[in-house]
Amino acid sequence: MQKEQIQILETSITRLLRRGANKQLLNIIKKTHMADLSIIFENMTPLNREKLFNLLDNPEDIGLLFSHLSEKTFVECVKILDFDKLVTVFDHMPSDDAAELLGCLDEELSDKILSKMKKEESYNVEQIMSYEEDTAGSLMVKDYVALEEDVKAKEVIEALQNKYLDVEMPFYIYVIDNYGKLVGVSSLRQLVVESPDKPLKSFMATDIVSVKPYTDRNVVARLVSRYDYLAVPVVDDDNRIIGIVTVDDVIDILHETATEDMLKMAGVGEDYVETQSILKGTRIRLPWLFASCLGGIANFFIIGGFESTLAQLTGLAAFIPIIMGMGGNIGTQSATIVVRGIATGRVNIRDFAKIISRELGVGFILGVTYGTLIAVVAKFSFMAEPFSWALSVVVGFSILSSMTVAAFVGTSVPMIFHRLNIDPAVATGPFVTTTMDLISVYCYFTITRVLLGF
């Protein structure tokens, strides 16, 4: 649903709530996807949110709504819901979503809900919650289709129609041997085009890509993205299937990872601004801004050290911002490319020299291009002055050196951070920009002294 449609829907729901038109509201709820309704919930006043929430009756709809709400709104809605109904909602939720949401509640309430849930559902959720956050085990769904290799195609179809009706996403038929070990997989398409009497082992694929429950979630996301899978099986150390990670969770991972990287690169932490308190937001940003402040103070002393040079060639000051800006920009660009490459698995630390060489080449060519352009601007801007030629040469070489060095710094620093097991996203933004400001100013005045002898 488009933003404009959601705004219209929100206005209509608010108006109907004010009138107490429950019949029309129920009709809207029936036709609206819970993902869209969750956006409206977030924007509502607590009173209107409670009124609308009390109209929801289907446990599956409530569970789907819960999975799309922010943690704060979810906790508020839990307080509204009757406890027995809350348990029913969690019983009807996919086990991975239930585990994630129960982790948002206080431990006492979470344990109480688990104790009242159906035994099988409670066991599945507790098993998922036992794995560390950001691992495949914490994301996996316990509902999947796994049948022995001698089962015939027609029997598989019968099982799907009768035994596996509640499986959320039956993308694949996983094939196991007599010991429960994963030996193959078949897509639904492959199943329906085969002869009904053929056993699974005769047409299953045996080149299976699987993950362990302790595999990092980003690794799982890269596998799904690389091979275009709809799900990846999670197996234990004995190769017995214990769950699957589905593509919808992978999409969430990729979205969250991209968001976290952008926030880290901006030096504002990894949480959304609406989830941060004033004190937390201040505490997270303070170190990065302090680093920028120190960089500015260092630049003050560097420029002060070249005061005599500036006095003899006053036109130098006019080009300090552009030299700093060009260096900082290309440094941030290079760093961003490398950080995203590392995150998506397209950049390997073993290719360090190759990547550095490529970015140095790009930085050098861009430096020559913009150095020449800005040198021409410097020449014509100060054409009447006797130092116009000298200034244009200094500016051109400074742009070239600044952009080349910036490409090197922006590429190498994230890769070094990654090699040291430090999140490379923190290497961009304020870190690279501040570093390049210092280097650019120092190179500028050093080149001036070397070429002009000031």
Task: Give the gist of this structure.
Helices cover 65% and strands 6% of the residues. The protein is mainly α.
What attributes does this structure have?
single chain, 454 residues, mainly alpha, 3-stranded mixed sheet, two-stranded antiparallel sheet
Provide the fold topology.
Elements: H1 3-19, H2 22-31, H3 34-43, H4 46-53, H5 59-68, H6 71-80, H7 83-91, H8 95-102, H9 107-116, H10 119-129, H11 136-139, E1 145-148, H12 153-162, E2 172-176, E3 182-187, H13 188-193, H14 217-227, E4 231-235, E5 241-246, H15 247-265, H16 278-305, H17 307-312, H18 320-344, H19 352-381, H20 388-419, H21 430-452
Parallel strand pairs: 1-2
Antiparallel strand pairs: 2-3, 4-5
Helix pairs in contact: 1-3, 3-5, 5-7, 8-10, 14-15, 15-18, 16-21, 18-20, 18-21, 19-20, 20-21
* Number of helical regions: 21
Order of strands, main sheet, comes to 1-2-3
> What general form does the structure show?
elongated
Q: Summarize model confidence as the mean pLDDT.
A: 85
| Structural class designation | mainly alpha
Topology pattern, helix = H, strand = E = HHHHHHHHHHHEHEEHHEEHHHHHHH
Helix content: 55-70%
Radius of gyration: 30 Å
Report how far the terminal alpha carbons are from each other. 65 Å
Count all strands and give the number: 5
Main sheet properties: 3 strands, mixed
Stretches where pLDDT is under 50 for at least 5 consecutive residues are none
What proportion strand? 5-15%
